[in-house]
Amino acid sequence: MSAQQDSINIESKTVVTDTDSLKNMAKGHRDVGNLFIGVDLFSPALSAFSDRQGGMAFASYRIYKKWNLSAEIGYEKNNFDDLDWKVSVDGIYFKFGFSWFASQDYRNGSNGFYTGARFGYAAYSQEIEQYPIRESSNQVDEYGSLPKENVSAYWFEMVGGARVRLISNLYADVSVRPQIYLGSKKQQNIDPLVIPGYGKDRGPMNFNVIWGLSWKIF
Amino acid sequence: MKLKDQEKLTHKNHSDNRIFDPMRIQEFKFGFAVSILMIVPFLLSGCEEDDICIGEGTPNLTVVFRNQLNTENQKDSLTIYRSADIGFEEADTLFEKFFTDSIKLPLAGLNTERVYFKIKRRSNSDSDILTVNYQSKSEYVSKACGFRVVYESLNYETTHQHISSLLPAESNELKDETITNLYIILGN
Fold first, then answer.
1. B21 & B78 share domain
2. In this structure, are B41 and B87 located in the same domain?
3. Quick one: B116 and B71 in the same domain?
4. Which residues in chain B show pLDDT less than 70?
5. What is the pLDDT of residue A48?
6. Stretch A67-80: mean pLDDT
7. CATH top-level class for A32-216?
8. Domain that holds residue B24
9. Model's pTM, two decimal places?
10. DSSP string covering chain A, please?
11. Chain A stretch 174-213, residues whose beta carbon is closer than 8 A to a beta carbon of chain B
12. ipTM rounded to 2 decimals
């Protein structure tokens, strides 16, 4: 008997919290920022430790409720120096896509966790300074090289991230991005070994991280 | 029984009371989704490394020996040397007293257009010299293998000590070593 009473009490409490938080969320949404522009700090940080040199800027615009359109543009110089290959690339890349806020802060709707997707495209110049030639079973007997050529590649990114206010209109925007290579315009039929914005070929999937710093415009 | 169930349920509700906050449920769901997103690429990267070149290399010339009447393959004990010069001053020993009816001969690679093979049967004192002429070029295979060499415009000549005649296959290209390129009809 007393147990039943208890459960009724809890149920009523639950209902109250429910409406409260809904109100808060609705209120929070009114404070959601619409346009953010920012830069990535991870790529310059990486430049200090690896052959990957470059930077990226991005913009995100809220179009409907929790949906945001995203555009990113970057420049990168990189090389692949492994398995007897020497390939260097440099060029620009673009990423377009959306982010959907899965959860937002009660008070500031610009804070929250999001998920999304991007389509990436890079137009770059590639120079194959050295490629290995195997004349017999499994040893490299000779090397060849190919001159600079303009090529391009595209890929898909899944995005999982979070945005949180630091001070005033300045936000930290961190995301992790599994990337899947889709295709490319090749030089002499050679699969790309390194692509600006995508990185080195490491099997079926790559993994990128963005440490963004963004400013809320309005 | 019914009351007991109810009690269990109530007890559970007590301890996890806060999970009814919809914000938390969403956060939990999303946190779960993000952790999956973060773990999946690592799982996938664990089984990558397609960095070892297996097969798909430069093809060898596949040669099959036939009997005098060209009715069936003929096994014999073969000794074969390869050389870039017809005098066989710098020769590689490819096979030594190898009992078989089919062999795979490596050609000389890029920047060459001719290679000689000295073929010795059993205890025969005289050996034959098979000359293979070709045009070589390199071709992309994969990241792990790099480029390989393929051969075109193949043609063959031979001496006739113990080889009766040569029967080249229809294709004069060498890109796949599982296809026989040349039949050697053995004589006496």
1. no
2. no
3. yes
4. 1-50, 123, 188
5. 86
6. 95
7. mainly beta
8. 2-46
9. 0.74
10. -HHHHHHHHHHHHHHHHHHHHHHHHHHHHHT---EEEEEESHHHHHHTTSS-EEEEEEEEEEEETTEEEEEEEEEEEEEEEETTEEEEEEEEEEEEEEEEEEEE-SS-TTSEEEEEEEEEEEEEEEEEEEEEEE-SSSS--EEEEEEEEEEEEEEEEEEEEEEEEEETTEEEEEEEEEEEEEEEEPBTTBPPSEETTTEE--SS-EEEEEEEEEEE--
11. 176, 178, 188-191, 193, 201-207
12. 0.75
